[in-house]
């Protein structure tokens, strides 16, 4: 399962959703059907859409801004920065908001 991931040959999530909804032309649908025969990840994604249908009419939720201290902590963690100062800064910043 080490290769259980989307790659550059995989259809987009939007295309998979359109396939699941029957909104693709015959040629595109056939290409996705062939891909699904060999790609466990896309097959799992399609199964997810079947189990949890997407409401394509619903407008996407507006993105909320991430609080600066939380963003900085996430950046530090992503950069493998485990310095305690990052956590201290976050905790101090959050305590100052109360």
Q: Explain this structure to me?
A:
The protein is mainly alpha-helical and 98 residues long. The chain folds into two domains: 1-56, no CATH class; 64-98, no CATH class. The protein contains five helices and no strands. The mean pLDDT is 78.
Key structural traits:
single chain, 98 residues, mainly alpha, 2 domains, 57% helix, 0% strand, elongated
Largest sheet: none
Low-pLDDT residue spans: none
What is the β-strand count?
0
Shape: elongated
What is the ordering of alpha helices and beta strands?
HHHHH
Number of helical elements: 5
Percent helix: 55-70%
Distance, first to last CA: 45 Å
Average pLDDT rating = 78
How many discrete domains? 2
Q: Would you kindly provide a brief summary of this structure?
A:
With 98 residues, the chain is mainly alpha-helical. Helices cover 57% and strands 0% of the residues. It is elongated, with a radius of gyration of 20 Å.
Question: Secondary-structure map with pairings?
Answer:
Elements: H1 13-21, H2 26-36, H3 40-51, H4 68-78, H5 84-96
Helix pairs in contact: 1-3, 4-5
């Amino acid at each position: 399962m080490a290769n259980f991931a989307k790659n550059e040959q995989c259809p987009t999530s939007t295309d998979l959703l359109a396939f699941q909804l029957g909104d693709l032309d015959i040629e595109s649908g056939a290409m996705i059907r062939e891909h699904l025969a060999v790609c466990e990840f896309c097959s799992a994604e399609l199964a997810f859409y079947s189990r949890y249908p997407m409401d394509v009419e619903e407008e996407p939720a507006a993105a909320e801004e991430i609080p600066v201290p939380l963003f900085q902590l996430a950046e530090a963690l992503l950069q493998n920065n485990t310095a305690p100062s990052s956590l201290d800064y976050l905790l101090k910043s959050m305590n100052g908001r109360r």
